[in-house]
Predict the 3D structure of the following.
Amino acid sequence: MNAFTRLPVALVLLTVASLAGAVTLPDYERVVLDNGTVLLLSEKHDVPLVGLSAVIRGGATADPADKYGLASQLAGLLSKGAGARDAATFAEAVEAVGGDLSARAELESISIQAEFLSRDAALMVELVADMIMRPTLDADEMAKLRDRSINLIRAAKDADPSALMPVYGSAFLFGEHPYGNPVGGSEASLAGITHEDVLEYYAGQVGGDRLIIAVVGDFDATAMQRLLTEAFGEWRAASAELADIEAPVQQNKRRVLLVDRPDTTQTYFWIGRQGVPVDYPGRAALNVANTIFGGSFTSMLMTALRVETGLSYSAYAMLARYAQAGYVAIRSFTETGTTIEAVDLALEVRGELRNAGVNEQGLVAARNYIMGQFPPRLETALQLAGQLTMLEQYGLGRDYIDGYGSALDALTTRDVNRAIDAVYASTDDLVFVMIGDAALIRDDVAKYGEVTEISITDPHFRLQKSPAEAGLD
């Protein structure tokens, strides 16, 4: 049976449209300031809005080994007072003009996003410059943010552990590699972060040589370049070197992380292996394969686990792509008593994709679905600015966006099946993360590989090394 036969007929009958050139980036100017800050400027005068995306390279991969979540704590503090404004005054300045301004940490960067009316563009640049270059980093605000972050993790463990599955999954898959760092930190690592740690991270990991700023919208490019140069052109460099992230070591055996959550009635599971980097040349083919497998509501996984068997309410396949290899993973949940049945079925569907591949109907349907989802992500000035910073951060050309429709159009089933063979073929290196009642499933899940067990109350997301293993005895 071909893998695509699990897909509903309605999806198969979507009309094939020419996708070549369907979505392209606007023209933009790239300027590198003397301090290394990169400016990307694109005028877009259809609406009186300006979107700004700023990226500081580094992020959670630059967190010290015992201070996971440090970049996230810094990002959360950037808007809690900056320049001459305290936290309340800063928020009022944004709200008074109907703007939107936020910061967050990601695995390989800290990002700032802003959207303001074009008449308030100068205020936007002032606020962003204050956030990035002159944050207050108040000790009391830091303590409140740290405590709130810890409590949110505890609440998720109590109420919705599914939200933590990618955190446990990455930590178990990548181990001590920086890609295993929990971006938001763990209860243990956050508790150990001090105000001095935040100040030290800011000085060492944040600077003009790490900064990328993209601005798209209703402005004059010459005037905007001058404004940004005046604001950021004299900023210092980060005092620490940005470490090169090496490719994670490929594992060669199956492993199971069992997170014991006693008396729970469900098992949450995540099945993954190393995937591909962001510049993987078969990106379009892999996206089609993932859409068919588990990237849409009508995917193979959803059809098998939800529609046909009722074993789960949802089941998805995920692709995470970084500068180095990310991961491909299955994520779902089921009643405790059907844990093995659901996991086995997910693996069976994965094997079906691998062995049978896709046919022409599947390719057409998935391609049309992707292009139905893709353009809305590139409509606003802020969305476009975000794409520009992403391209610059990872050293990608604009054809990464402009050529995507043509790449989808040109795909053959052979291309997609080749991507499946490359990314989904191996099952020998799968890692399984399960959150459930260990007393009821411990013996059964051992069939999937060597089991490592921790408690849901453990304040870490991965098993900690003994003093001997860490070289401390």
User: Anything to note?
Assistant: The first strand starts at residue 29 and ends at 32. Residues 123 and 408 are 41 Å apart (CA to CA). The chain has two domains: 29-232, 248-455.
